[in-house]
Target: 4-hydroxybenzoyl-CoA thioesterase
Amino acid sequence: MSRFSESIPVRVYYEDTDHGGVVYYANYLKFMERGRTEFLRAIGLELDAIETEFGILFAVTEAHVRYQTPARFNDLLEVDTSLIEMRGARLAFTQTIYHQATRRQLCTATIRLACINRESAACRIPAPLIKILQNHLNKEHI
Model:
């Protein structure tokens, strides 16, 4: 199976930084959220349509982030996202944020999500979604 990933550009705005012009650590999680949303969009899945059709949402249950080099105001970054696990009610993604011009790796993360219903109870990922997601599962990481 070939490796599927989705990469998106993210510009660092002043609002993303601390007083010293360095990206505030929690904002990397926002960039990664955008990356996961665009990953799903790239494979034909829209989060609002998933909620409407199946009555489910995905909630982050765990985020393991390793920060290596800071990004700064006005940097252009690239967020690379790969699906690495899918089991029952769980998904896991690996995400890497690079400085676009230098390709220097800034941070890496493994993000785990739970499939939940509208009452916030864990539930299995619906079969039609599993079928689509399986085609984009990166088994190199397993």
